[in-house]
Amino acid sequence: MASNYTSMGVTFIGCGAAAPETVVLNDALAQVVDTSDEWISSRTGIRQRHISHDRESLAGLATQAAQQALEMAGVAATDVDLIILATSSAEDLFGTACQIQAQLGATQAVAFDLTAACSGFVFGVVTAAQFLRSGVYRNILVIGADFLSRWVNWQDRNTCVLFGDGAGAVLMQGTENVDRLLGFEIRSDGSQNCCLNLAFQPELSELIPGVVLTQGKYQYITMNGKEVYRFAINRVPDAIDKVIHQANLTSADIDWLILHQANQRIMDAVAERLQIAPEKVVSNVAKYGNTSAASIPIALNEAVRSGKIQAGDTIATSGFGAGLSWGAAIFKWGN
Question: Is 195 noted as a catalytic residue in this protein?
Answer without folding.
Answer: no
